[in-house]
Amino acid sequence: MANYIRDFLWLLLAAMKAVVAFFIWRRKLHLRFPLFFSFLVYGAAASVVLYAVSHVGSYRTYFYSYWVNSALYALLSCAVLYEVFMGMFRPHHGLQDFGSVLFRWAGVVSIFMAITLVAASPSSDAHRVINFILSAERAVGVVQCGMLLFLILFAKPLGITRQHHIFGFTLGLGTYSCVHFILLAQWTRALFGSVALVGLMDMVAFHAALITWLVYALKPEPAAVMPNLLLKPQRWSDALVHASNPDMQENTVLLGIEDIVERTLNKTNGSSNPHNA
User: Fold this and answer.
1) In Å, what is the CA distance from 141 to each residue of 12, 205, 208, 227?
2) Which of 160, 245, 257, 263 is a plausible cystine mate for 155, CB 3.0–4.6 Å?
3) pTM of the full predicted structure?
4) Per the structure, how many domains does the chain have?
5) What is the mean pLDDT of residues 22-51?
């Protein structure tokens, strides 16, 4: 009975990914989130291929297919994180540049830690590759949980409401990662004795994330808040821009003075025109 439930959830997972990708494409959201769209399309295709290999191919073929897919999935997940993280700062160029640098350094530190842990483990080369993939997946999951916390804390200052697509996509990613870590922690504590049970619960959690993404893909997004109305993040963005380019503030002042002089001259010329009398 458990095998039938697993197969049903496995095939339903592929179908749900395809449905979410279809509606994202239909609503033209793939133009704003191309990496997230690619993540869903690849996930749907990979789920079908792995299902076929597990039922038709040998265990060796399925083993290598599973771990190659896990490595590619970790890379795509990292790319999706970068896209969603940058999407939060889209109207604020200074914050976007700072966030890009911060994300890259976090990625470098995570990879360095994964390499250090794998190199220190006394295992064969094949096991080290698997451990590195697992470490990369955990690092991506930690970043996803952190990004959810960041969204909860800074959504209002950045002008992101619960109706925005970026909120729903981040909510699905972060919530699934939190549940995934909880399941792994309880399994290591021997609360769940069966790996199959943990896998089933993990698939159910990912289905919940897919339902969240589907709901947000079908919802219309509210009008964007103008950056000049978001005073606090705009001040942060301007401070970062001026810090990275100190001459820009002086140039901005000069441009403002030139604009005032130009408007004054245009007003004077307009009032001295005899046709205006």
Assistant:
1) 23, 14, 16, 31
2) 160
3) 0.71
4) 2
5) 92
